[in-house]
């Protein structure tokens, strides 16, 4: 087997959505992908509900921490093959230079950490983001990446998100 692909999920705070992406990419791929996450303005903590989800899927909690995307622009950082922004704010920000020009896409999700709602409503919101990311990652994992070029993969990443957004909105 070739080396695992590295995939970086970006969000502004790196406490919820990007953490879920990291956990799901790593666990669903069974070694084919190594998920990473970071934020442009990290919150310095992982949201307790993101930790609860990670615990449910037996992801090593000691691997999770809120971190700056600057860590992944360093010379000694793992080479990223793919970068996915999961919040609109991070997608619109000026990103650091990513060595190797990884394939990137935007899979935007609403922030599930709205503190003005009940704990059950927040958990439901986390589950919605988790299912959205899970569906996208599973479709991504089904692609024959070794047979596609950079532009084809980029098109597929965008297509996956748009198809599922249409389904979620009932327009498919």
Describe the fold and architecture.
The model has no long low-confidence stretch (mean pLDDT 89). It is globular and about 45 Å long. It has 5 helices and 4 strands; from the N terminus they run E-H-E-H-E-H-E-H-H. Helix 4 (119-141) runs antiparallel to helix 5. It has 172 residues and is of the alpha/beta class. It has a single domain (5-168), classed as Response regulator (Rossmann fold). The protein is 40% helix and 13% strand.
CATH class: Alpha Beta
How much is the radius of gyration in Å?
15 Å
Strand count, sense and closure of the main sheet?
Answer: 4 strands, parallel
Q: Kindly estimate the percentage of residues that lie in beta strands according to DSSP.
A: 5-15%
Tally the beta strands: 4
Q: How many separate domains?
A: 1
CATH architecture, by name, is 3-Layer(aba) Sandwich
Shape: globular
Give the neighbour order of strands across the main sheet: 2-1-3-4
Helical content stands at: 40-55%
CATH homology group: Response regulator
Mean pLDDT: 89
